[in-house]
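Task card 7
Instruction: Convert sequence to structure tokens.
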Amino acid sequence: MAKKTQQELRQMIRSMGIKVTKQRLEILSVLNSDKTHVTAQDVYERLNSPEIGFATVYRFLKKLSELKLVTEVRMGGLPARYELAGDEHHDHLTCTDCGRIVEFEEQQIEEIQEIVARRHGYRLTDHILELYGVCPSCLEKENQSILPNSSTASLSTMPVNTI
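Output:
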């Protein structure tokens, strides 16, 4: 997603029908940075400003999410993650071990969702698709922990004394 200009960020705030403030611009600037899918805590910590409290960050992110100016990605009991909404639609694949999020587009999935909506008499207006699994890095760590280490292997080959 292309970064938005300061003018575009100001326009986002104006479109919400609220006043453009330094604090709101700073929160949007964090979302507009290179790092995507940040928690409210991440935003708060990156602001590092005594003038902006965590409650302010959280409320503003929730409002942005309600108005679909940011996308909120949820995973089980973990904190919600946020990203600026872009013009291009995408879905999310989230690692249940480390929380890594991969964005993807899959035309076949989009077509199937339309078919399902029509089959049930719906006109699809929007959707959020979040898939959960274990990423390659975490799978590799799991496989490493399953392999016996040298001390365990040597114990299993030691002769057992019988009396």
